[in-house]
Design brief:
Strand order of the largest sheet: 5-6-7-9-8
Structural class: mainly beta
Number of strands: 9
Radius of gyration: 19 Å
Helix content: under 10%
Length: about 160
């Protein structure tokens, strides 16, 4: 059976998907649809990858100097800029604290399975300076090269 998504309705209460199938239109709750999809697909949260230290480093990474920052098991979002995949990470803030600071870790060894803009990942790795090669995207951005040690989907345990 094939479905065609007509449009998605988003509200503060729920998200609905309007679909058509064989000349009929129906409104389906996203949660209902996801539970049906989950029953026929393996859980994506189970995808995790320890990075092999012998994995080749992307030739666009110009790693010079020491490690300037290390992160373990932090949540970030995948993006693509300057012909490299990156993971944006914002340090945790205290209550009532605001900041536009973010680290853009341009990944030198991104596994294929995790390439996709907007994907939420949990990762560990070492950062190196990249300011000579990659300009800031905005005032609070700190571009760094990131050599991953581990990566998995979302903020699962």
């Amino acid at each position: 059976m094939h479905f065609k998504i007509l449009y998605i309705v988003v509200s503060s209460l729920s998200t609905m998907l309007i679909v058509t199938c064989a000349k009929k239109t129906a409104t389906v709750a996203i949660s209902s649809l996801l539970s049906k999809v989950a029953s026929v697909m393996p859980a994506i949260d189970s995808v995790s990858e320890d990075i092999d230290s012998t994995m080749s480093i992307d030739s666009k990474c110009h790693i010079e100097g020491p490690v300037v920052m290390q992160l373990k098991e932090q949540v970030g979002y995948v993006g693509y800029r300057a012909n490299l995949w990156y993971i944006s990470y914002s340090p945790p803030l205290q209550p009532n604290e605001m900041s536009d600071s973010q680290y853009s870790g341009f990944v030198c060894n991104m596994p294929e399975a995790f390439k996709g803009v907007g994907r939420k990942v949990k990762f560990s790795g070492n950062y190196h300076h990249a300011y000579k090669y990659i300009p800031k995207a905005h005032a609070g951005d700190t571009p760094l090269y990131l050599v991953l040690k581990k990566i998995r989907w979302g903020d699962t345990n």
